[in-house]
Write a sequence for this structure.
């Protein structure tokens, strides 16, 4: 139980690699979000309107890539949630073998850059199994993000007071019944916000898959630029579109967070 | 009451934390319908002993037999035993994400395999009994500590256990709420529920207990009826303890 008065712990610094999620009480960030969002949209519109050549051509060329980016991101998120849940439960398992495997997975995957993992699955393992680039991309992203999700799940489950488990077990519930009915439903609340952050981070990292010839947003931009030589114009547009997408996502995550805390 | 059958048989139980003896060769029988109150200074092993009765603690030596079942035997399905052993905790441990009614119904449906209607019927009666029927659809966060603890008691009773364990059930409560919880426990004892209670409430111990167990340094030092213990004990450690708290 926390003792008041004596040595107070310093506040935890919470900075994630995901987009900064605007909350109403953080006025500075909230305004910055608005400025960035309105600014980005206005610049896109202005460029297309005043200089349709080449900006309008670029923006007509990119939607296919946006679609692929979303497809890869959403598939990877769903799959990484599954990996993360399994590995996260493994990390808190009393069974030494399961715990060992799960911990090893988390340690190894978090120790290798995502770009290297992408290369490894597509090019290195491609020597034995040839899978479509998009599938390889989704597998690599899911395995990688699954390891990060596992730590979020583990932390979320660890945060539930031990008394909850003891109460459930004392009623005769099995360990898995306790996890399903008592622990996970409570852990979801603490887990959702960081998972939202991972979602945004994953969307940005999905640009790495363009290196595997997956026609995502960045790749489509590169294709356009290498034909037209409009590098500055194309990548400006690509950057602005990424920015708009992540800003919308971080807004949605913020709304979701508020919803959850309102339910208390 | 002492000639009724032994529901809990604790035999030479010891437990160590490193060099520290949390439980020191404890033997104890608890009979059907009996209310046993365990008292003693903090760190004397009261809670550890209580928690070993439903295997929330591991033990290093000895046996605990509940209704004929050796619960520390590897072959025993502990979940089956726990269905019969209700437990109430100091920190309530109600499920905050479930309403009061859902708190009572969960284990009934999941563990006892009762239908939702059966469970709800039983829950309603119990909520009435502990005096919080009108809070059935509230979430625990909206309830006072005393109300939450009564939910926890009802939740344990909903499993129709053979024995109820209380681990300092009023220690986390504001003084004005202690009475409402003790009233429920007194009612239960009068109805003949077998109860083992760890508490610092000496008034309750004196009034309700059939037997007082006094523990110190992990061992049972003295036991007897409330009258024998509170007024006529010859044991020096018990006398010292009583002089400090009364």
């Amino acid at each position: 139980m926390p003792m008041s008065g004596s040595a107070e712990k310093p506040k935890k610094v919470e900075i994630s690699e995901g987009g900064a999620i605007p909350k109403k009480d953080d006025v500075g960030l909230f305004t910055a979000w608005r400025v960035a969002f309105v600014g980005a949209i206005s610049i896109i519109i202005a460029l297309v309107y005043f200089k349709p050549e080449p900006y309008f051509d670029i923006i007509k060329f990119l939607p296919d890539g946006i679609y692929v980016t979303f497809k890869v991101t959403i598939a990877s998120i769903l799959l990484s949630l599954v990996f993360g849940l399994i590995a996260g439960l493994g990390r808190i398992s009393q069974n030494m073998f399961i715990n060992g495997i799960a911990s090893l997975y988390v340690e190894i995957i978090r120790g290798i850059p995502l770009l290297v993992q992408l290369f490894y699955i597509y090019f290195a393992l491609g020597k034995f199994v040839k899978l479509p680039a998009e599938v390889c991309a989704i597998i690599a992203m899911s395995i990688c993000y699954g390891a990060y999700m596992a730590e979020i799940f583990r932390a979320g489950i660890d945060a539930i007071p031990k008394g909850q488990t003891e109460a459930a077990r004392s009623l005769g519930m099995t360990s898995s019944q306790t996890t399903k009915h008592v622990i996970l439903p409570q852990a979801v609340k603490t887990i959702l916000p960081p998972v939202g952050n991972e979602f945004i981070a994953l969307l940005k990292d999905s640009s790495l898959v363009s290196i595997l010839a997956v026609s995502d947003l960045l790749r489509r931009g590169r294709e356009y630029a290498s034909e037209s030589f409009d590098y500055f114009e194309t990548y400006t547009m690509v950057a602005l579109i990424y920015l708009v997408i992540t800003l919308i996502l971080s807004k949605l995550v913020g709304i979701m967070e508020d919803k959850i805390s309102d339910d208390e | 009451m002492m000639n009724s059958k032994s529901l809990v048989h604790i035999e030479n139980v010891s437990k160590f934390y490193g060099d520290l003896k949390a439980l020191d060769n404890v033997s104890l029988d608890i009979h059907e319908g009996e209310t046993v109150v365990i008292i003693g200074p903090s760190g004397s092993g009261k809670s550890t002993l209580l928690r070993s009765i439903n295997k929330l603690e591991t033990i290093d030596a000895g046996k605990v037999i509940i209704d004929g079942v050796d619960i520390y035997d590897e072959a025993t399905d502990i979940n089956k035993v726990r269905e019969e052993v209700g437990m109430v905790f100091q920190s309530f441990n109600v499920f905050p994400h479930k309403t009061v009614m859902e708190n009572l119904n969960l284990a009934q449906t999941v563990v006892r395999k009762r239908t939702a209607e059966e469970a709800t019927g039983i829950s309603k009666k119990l909520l009435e009994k502990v005096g919080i029927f009108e809070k059935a659809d509230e979430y625990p966060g909206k309830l006072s500590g005393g109300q939450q603890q009564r939910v926890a008691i009802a939740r344990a009773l909903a499993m129709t256990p053979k024995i109820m364990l209380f681990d300092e059930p009023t220690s986390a409560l504001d003084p004005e709420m202690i009475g409402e919880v003790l009233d429920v426990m007194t009612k239960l004892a009068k109805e003949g529920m077998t109860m083992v209670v760890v508490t610092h409430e000496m008034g309750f111990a004196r009034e309700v207990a059939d037997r007082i167990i006094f523990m110190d340094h992990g061992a049972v030092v003295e036991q007897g009826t409330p009258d024998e213990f509170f007024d006529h004990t010859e044991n020096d450690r018990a006398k010292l303890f009583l002089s400090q708290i009364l």
The radius of gyration of chain A is 22 Å.
